[in-house]
Amino acid sequence: MSKLTNDEIRQNVRSRYKQIAVAEMNAGSCCQPDNSQASCCSTPSDFNSISSRLGYFDDELNAAPEGANLGLGCGNPQAIASLKAGEVVLDLGSGGGFDCFLASRQVGDTGKVIGVDMTPEMVSRARSNAVKGHFKNTDFRLGEIEHLPVADHTVDAIISNCVVNLSPDKQQVFHDSFRVLKSGGRLAISDIVTTADLPPEIKNDLDELYSGCISGASSVSEIEAMLSQSGFTNISVEPKDESKAFIKDWVQGSNIEDYIVSAVIQATKP
């Protein structure tokens, strides 16, 4: 893609998540384009229902302040990250802060959680949620995940939930993730991967399906190659076939579950 096209993609994604951040009546989530018949309503119970299908437990859903869970994502990175007390955690595309607040509980007062999001309205919402929930070990920063506003070699673990697929330069995302991790640090993310070549009408749909976490997805082999090129070892990309149960509702009548699934992506910085 050309630089102009990359910028167009970022602006489109930023515009979509600005709408989600400020909307009182949300018509859909990160992985549910607006034309989905399975779009969510605005109540916390609706968002919790969506997140339960993604793998979150009731105690996690009840732990975050109201307004943090926006029903976004395609998995639960908390379940794979094995976070420990005192660790520094970075969340790529932190949205309203939901995963950051859950990570905050695990790392405790001696740890720190940094959330990075490129949408100012999301950062503002997350900061407000942190104050409301009295989370003092979280820090929300405005920035792009390709160029993280984080110092070199300072992060123990990177989490993310269905965000890397939104980047038009995924290799740079992994390069910069490698940069900020400490030696021995780990990447533990949930994201979408392709299981078959996307049809042109899906792959080229920038307005809805790219920002809806669909047409920007890469294959398992592509993700593995990018992680390796960035220097990661212990690379594992594990597709979750059970995710088809909720993916099939993202675009009604499209059989999108024949082309993409959620995956657990893990890697280590030597």
From TrEMBL:
One Pfam family named in its UniProt record: Methyltransf_31
Catalysis: reaction(s): arsenic triglutathione + [thioredoxin]-dithiol + S-adenosyl-L-methionine + 2 H2O = methylarsonous acid + [thioredoxin]-disulfide + 3 glutathione + S-adenosyl-L-homocysteine + H(+); arsenic triglutathione + 3 [thioredoxin]-dithiol + 3 S-adenosyl-L-methionine = trimethylarsine + 3 [thioredoxin]-disulfide + 3 glutathione + 3 S-adenosyl-L-homocysteine + 3 H(+); arsenic triglutathione + 2 [thioredoxin]-dithiol + 2 S-adenosyl-L-methionine + H2O = dimethylarsinous acid + 2 [thioredoxin]-disulfide + 3 glutathione + 2 S-adenosyl-L-homocysteine + 2 H(+)
Family matches, as InterPro entries: Arsenite_MeTrfase-like, Methyltranfer_dom, SAM-dependent_MTases_sf
Family, as annotated: Belongs to the methyltransferase superfamily. Arsenite methyltransferase family.
All residue ranges annotated as the Methyltransferase domain in the record: 84-229
Protein name per Swiss-Prot or TrEMBL: Arsenite methyltransferase
Keywords carried by this UniProt record: S-adenosyl-L-methionine, Transferase
Enzymatic class: transferase
E.C. no: 2.1.1.137
Originating organism: Paenibacillus cineris
CDD domains named in the record: AdoMet_MTases
Keyword Transferase: yes
